[in-house]
Amino acid sequence: MLTDLSWSYQNYFNQDILIINSKVTFYQQVSFEILDDDTVLKTEVKVHVGDIIDVVGRLDDDDNDDQWFAKIIAIIIHKNYNDNNCIFLVLDWFEYHDFNTNLQCHRYKLQRSDENWKRIHSITIISAQPKWHFIHDCINNCVEKNHDVNNRIFYKNDYLYTAA
């Protein structure tokens, strides 16, 4: 965990630090405001453990923006060497799996904890209120409210809407 936390400080804040204080505090939810460049418009965001967020970015060898999805598995606060509280998200990433032609839905595979993906990220990767819904692709081993943890396939639900 400290390696990923150290990577996050370097990647998001350009701080190459040695983490002396390894104490973190866990939260179930956090709310914050995102200000635009002119600080005129603001968006209030509230995220919870279990929410799905999207992150837009580019791969090193690609000029196009890609959209990635991740599930928040923990919200942590770490006090840095300047005695400032920094909020980080511990994420499990979704990897694109395939497209189900019968349901007309994209399917994604949720990463396992032993896969080598960066899992701790600054809360600054969130740019809007999360609006994504993923549904477990239940198989024979799933029972109500008790999904098969070895089946890590989820459908991305593109058919939800916001009522006006």
Strand and helix map with partners:
Layout: H1 2-13, E1 24-27, E2 29-35, E3 42-48, E4 52-57, E5 66-79, E6 85-100, E7 105-110, E8 120-122, E9 134-136, E10 153-156
Antiparallel strand pairs: 1-5, 2-3, 4-5, 5-6, 6-7, 6-8, 7-10, 9-10
Brief write-up:
Helices cover 7% and strands 43% of the residues.
In words, what does this structure look like?
The chain has one helix and ten strands. By secondary structure, the protein is mainly β. It has one domain. Strand 6 (85-100) and strand 7 (105-110) form a beta hairpin.
Number of strands: 10
How big a fraction of the residues is strand? 35-45%
Number of domains: 1
What sequence of helices (H) and strands (E) makes up the elements? HEEEEEEEEEE
Q: What level of helicity do the residues show?
A: under 10%
Mean pLDDT across every amino acid position? 81
Q: Which runs of at least 5 residues are low in confidence (pLDDT < 50)?
A: none
Which of globular, elongated, flat, extended, rod-shaped describes the shape? globular
Backbone structural class: mainly beta
Termini, distance in Å?
Answer: 42 Å
Task: Please work out how many helical segments DSSP would assign.
Answer: 1
Largest sheet: 8 strands, antiparallel
CA radius of gyration is 18 Å
